[in-house]
Amino acid sequence: MRWSDQVPTMMECRMENEPTQIENPRFRMWLRPDGIVHLVWAPMIELHLEDAIASAGAMSTLTGGKRAPLLVDASTVGSQDRAARNEFVSRGDLVAGVALIVTTPLSRLMGNFFIAVSKPVVATRLFDDEESAVAWLKGLAT
């Protein structure tokens, strides 16, 4: 079984030629019906600038270049280099807020490091579960 097979597929009907999900060898991203973009990284990969650029491009494709809240499953991701961190935190043009799901002590440590060192330009918080992360992202829109 591939890692991406463990992520639910999206069954939303959209206009022809508008993607609802994008699969990359290093991540899977989809636009949820509630307007939140959901990103899941492949397990234990090291993130580089190319990954940050590819995920920003995927998000732009899914949202038509409009800002949207971003839910990131960061529970199994590996390290990220400085260039990737800088790209992630500078994307206020695409991202309205970021909820990072961290379910292990290591992912929480890395998430806290990311926020403290990189100082994202949009609201960014860590969560233990998807439900509370989604509730917070929805609250950003109000």
SSE arrangement:
Blueprint: E1 21-24, E2 27-31, E3 37-41, H1 49-63, E4 68-73, H2 82-89, E5 95-101, H3 105-118, E6 124-127, H4 130-140
Parallel strand pairs: 3-4, 4-5, 5-6
Antiparallel strand pairs: 1-2, 2-3
Helix pairs in contact: 1-2
Main sheet: strand order: 1-2-3-4-5-6
Give the averaged pLDDT, no decimals: 86
CATH fold annotation: Transcription Regulator spoIIAA
- What is the string of SSEs from the N terminus onward? EEEHEHEHEH
CATH architecture: 2-Layer Sandwich
Helix content: 25-40%
What's the CATH C level? Alpha Beta
Beta content comes to: 15-25%
Structural class assignment: alpha/beta
Shape: globular
Description:
With 142 residues, the protein is of the alpha/beta class. It has a single domain (21-140), classed as 2-Layer Sandwich (Transcription Regulator spoIIAA). It has four helices and six strands. It has helices at residues 49-63, 82-89, 105-118, 130-140, and strands spanning 21-24, 27-31, 37-41, 68-73, 95-101, 124-127. The protein has a six-stranded mixed beta sheet, sandwiched between helices. Helix 1 runs parallel beside helix 2 (82-89). It starts with 20 loop residues before the first strand and ends with a helix.
